[in-house]
Design a protein that fits this description.
Elements lengths: L39 H8 L27 E3 L29 E3 L5 E3 L3 E3 L1 E2 L3 H5 L1 H11 L3 E3 L11 E2 L5 E3 L1 H11 L8 E5 L1 H6 L1 H9 L3 E5 L10 E4 L2 H9 L3 E3 L5 H9 L5 E4 L7 H13 L4 E6 L4 H13 L4 E5 L10 H6 L4 H17 L7 E4 L5 H10 L4 E6 L1 H18 L5 H4 L5 H4 L3 H8 L8 H23 L13 E3 L2 H7 L9 H8 L1
Helix pairs in contact: 3-4, 3-18, 10-12, 13-18, 14-18
């Protein structure tokens, strides 16, 4: 199976000249002296490190596209002709009540103090990337009206141009963080929450202290990594002054803006962007428990943990430590990830793919549960976008997995809705949209529903938020249909028996029965 084709991809704005490409290297089978490009080797010959990252920065959402040997398409969802789980007692077998609109898609998470969500999905971490910053109103209000949790990612305070620090180097004022929290809260109605992530730099700046004291946030998230990359987060900045400012704040900035040769290259235009990187960080059992204790001492009622596509060793640490520390939600993010500016080849080639990572997760959870340990509520992330993805993840991880984290899938409808608004203003709606009408009321199926609910406040809901709400409703109805077909009318009653493996390899990795073995024992009893 050919799993990769390096050296050219739309994300790096590169392509092969030849129709014939060597699969392993990605180099054209006939490389001509004099070729005018534009494969990645060609582009890197004069732009160097620029080719490492997807582009253009701030205008795209990039995700790895490597084709793994096994993924969630190797599972199928079961359907049954009898029964109904999760309905009130006495009406389980009534065809007038066992209908798909009756399916309850609500879920919750938390060790003691639970957070409810209207669907078992929430946003990926929307942090310091430009695409998150400039689309925040759309993303935040969209998540709030959809009744799902919004994750404010790392480094938001650290890169804020208007950040003010006190004499101790701690946050005194962080206007962009204030804006992000307040925007979500404008339409928050009790479902979901906003939680803020912290990395090494955030901890040093005192982000937890700031959001707890000023905004009384109840939840904070620790971060061990993500599915897109195995290094700290990064963004790009264009100005030398901005690069110097970020370096002064303690970030890793490359190329080093303090060097005269770099400043000269920037002045003539050879270097047009600087990268701001976060530190790797180190995980130890003692430090983890100490940090959890410190955060609880600040008054946080919930502490969550996000970990990445690391091997089984780090996964075992994350699950066991989370159990011991009574972590409220553990999000496990598999490869290939990506939403912002992760190095492209790292997105393609690093980490444990989500299907394998979730299989490991279930195995570890079962071992710890048999020892009498309580498993924290778990969410799985890593390239999901549809209601069948959500169902398969919940079933494969039952009873431990309570939700799915959607990164790019929640960002895209926000950008689509926003752009529909721009196109309407310029009277330049593309045919893909104008076929449905020319006004928001005509285009968005949810417009009148939201207008009735919010009245005059409908004017405060940006069209990107309407896009996210519309998408969330598609996920909800689609999930209701799949759950009804499997006779599951509440999320907690979904089980691993509700999915089957289509290949023996998938069955071996996941422990989900091969299609020719599933329910065979029950069938034999009927035949006997």
């Amino acid at each position: 199976m050919n799993l990769q084709r390096p050296n050219a991809n739309d994300t790096t704005e590169s392509f092969n000249r030849s129709r014939n490409v060597v699969p392993g290297s990605g180099i054209c089978s006939r490389c001509i002296d004099g070729c005018k490009g534009n494969c990645e080797i060609f582009k890197a010959s004069f732009r160097g490190r620029d080719v490492i990252y997807p582009g253009p920065f701030g205008e795209i959402s990039a995700g790895g596209d490597k084709n793994y040997p096994i993924d969630y398409s190797h599972l199928n969802i079961q359907g049954y002709a009898m029964g109904a789980k999760g309905l009130p007692k006495g009406i389980e077998g009534n065809p007038d009540t066992a209908i798909f609109p009756a399916v309850d898609t609500e879920t919750d998470y938390g060790w003691d103090k639970k957070v409810k969500m209207k669907i078992p999905a929430f946003t990926g971490a929307l942090g310091s990337t430009e695409i998150a910053r400039k689309n925040w109103e759309h993303f935040a209000i969209g998540a709030a009206i959809s009744g799902v949790t919004l994750v404010c990612g790392e480094n938001v305070c650290g890169i804020d141009p208007k950040l003010e620090l006190n004499s101790n180097g701690k946050i005194k004022k962080a206007p962009d963080m204030d804006r992000r929290i307040e925007t979500y809260r404008k339409f928050h109605e009790g479902y979901g929450e906003i939680l803020v992530q912290m990395n090494v730099e955030d901890t040093r700046l005192g982000v937890a202290e700031y959001v707890r004291k000023k905004h009384r946030l109840e939840t904070i998230e620790l971060k061990w990594g993500q599915g897109a990359k195995c290094i700290g987060g990064e963004i790009k900045v264009k100005s030398l002054a901005r690069a110097l400012e970020l370096k002064k704040r303690g970030y890793i900035v490359t190329p080093d803006p303090t060097l005269k040769v770099v400043q000269k290259a920037h002045k003539v235009g050879a270097i047009r962007e600087f990268e701001r990187h976060s530190r790797l960080g180190f995980v130890t059992e003692e430090a983890f428990f100490a940090e959890v204790k410190r955060l609880r001492g600040l008054g946080f009622k919930r502490i969550t943990l996000k970990t990445g596509a690391y091997p089984m060793r780090e996964l075992a640490m994350a699950i066991k430590y989370s159990s011991m520390a009574k972590i409220d939600l553990l999000t496990i993010d598999g490869a290939p990830g990506g939403t912002g500016m992760s190095p492209w080849r790292m997105m393609e080639e690093w980490g444990i793919p989500t299907f394998y990572l979730q299989s490991m997760t279930y195995e570890i959870c079962e071992k710890l549960a048999k020892k009498g340990m309580r498993i924290p509520d778990i969410a799985i992330a890593g390239g999901f976008s549809t209601e069948d993805h959500i169902f398969k993840v919940l079933a494969m991880g039952a009873p431990y997995v309570k939700s799915v984290c959607l990164g790019r899938a929640f960002m895209i409808p926000g950008m689509v809705g926003k752009n529909i608004g721009y196109w309407m203003e310029g009277k330049d709606l593309p045919p893909t949209v104008s076929r449905y009408g020319k006004t928001a009321e005509e285009i968005f199926t949810c417009y009148n529903e939201l207008a009735e609910k919010y009245g005059d406040r409908i004017e405060e809901i940006p069209m990107g938020a309407m896009g996210i709400y519309s998408f969330s409703q598609k996920l909800k109805v689609g999930l209701q249909q799949l759950m009804a077909g499997t006779r599951n009318f509440k999320i907690p009653v979904i089980s691993r028996k509700d999915v089957i493996s289509l290949t023996e390899d998938a069955a071996k990795v996941s422990g989900i029965p091969y299609v020719m073995d599933a329910y065979r024992e029950e069938a034999e009893k009927i035949l006997d």
